[in-house]
Amino acid sequence: MTTLPTPTPPAPDTALGASLLDALRPALPDLSVGALLGFATGVALRHVGRVVLIVVGVLFITLQLLAYLDLITVNWLRLQALTEPWLRQGSEHGASWLGRVLTANLPFAGAFTAGLLVGLRARV
To answer: Would you list the domain boundaries of the chain?
Structure first.
């Protein structure tokens, strides 16, 4: 008479990994779409930010050139007084506002945020 070998229980880490994968399987489409959309948004923000910085730099060079040629006079202290409160408020509230806008009504906001951060750092 032959005896059947007794099945060995899976290793604890394999069982945990399988149960975690089974638990995440329904959410994987949302997570992957969220990460992909977040990455694309991050890359787009990088490129748009670069263009905005180029425009601001060209504007400054133009103002300086016109001031050098005595065609205009720029009151830099008045310009600073006008823009400083707006820039301070933008730096304090801008990032949180942008985060709220980009993740509003998204069920996959965590994956989107992770993809956004990766997209902002990507060298594309």
So the answer is: 32-121
Which residue, 32, 34, 41, is CA-closest to 122? 41
Over residues 42-78, the pLDDT tens digits come to 999 999 999 999 999 999 999 999 999 999 998 989 9
Amino acid letter, 122: A
CA angle 98–24–122, rounded 5-degree value:
40
Per-residue tokens: 107: 């069920």
Report the predicted TM-score, pTM, of the whole model to 2 decimal places. 0.58
Rounded to an integer, what distance in angstroms lies between the CA atom of residue 18 and that of residue 46? 38
Report residue 14 as tokens. 């394999």
Give dist(CA 47, CA 53) in Å, integer.
10
Name the residue among 25, 42, 36 with its Cα closest to residue 124. Answer: 42
Closest CA to 29 of 95, 117, 111: 111
